[in-house]
Amino acid sequence: MAFKPESSNRQAMSEINVTPLVDVMLVLLVVFIVTAPLLTQAVKVDLPKTEKTDPAPDQHLAVLVIDAGGRLSVDDQEHTLESLPGVLQTRLQADPELLVQFQVDKAVPYGRLAEAMAVAHKAGIVKLAFLTQE
Predict the structure, then answer these.
(1) What is the pLDDT of residue 2?
(2) Share of the chain above pLDDT 70, in %
(3) For residue 83, what is the DSSP state?
(4) Measured CA angle at 28 (ends 24, 34), to 5 deg
């Protein structure tokens, strides 16, 4: 007796094999679980609170103001960006401890502030400060 395959009884398989899908999803879940804590690293610091005090009068101070129009002034005298190095170098020669305080309007583009900072650095100023409001 010969065993004869019956080709007429063959039908298309209509089941979906979900095992590979589950494997891929588990791998993605493990990757997410491992990387999620790395994305939220931050150092939390509880800073001390103090009362506001008036700063001590500083003899070694030059106040550089950049107004909303981009105009520069040093100690209430208006200057251009080109004349600023000479003014700062003169003040630095008279006072080697010179601190330049920047008072910049918030409407001023960052590029204008960066230019003024670069000019101050080229003039030899090593102490910079920025004034803000509370």
Answers:
(1) 58
(2) 79
(3) T
(4) 145
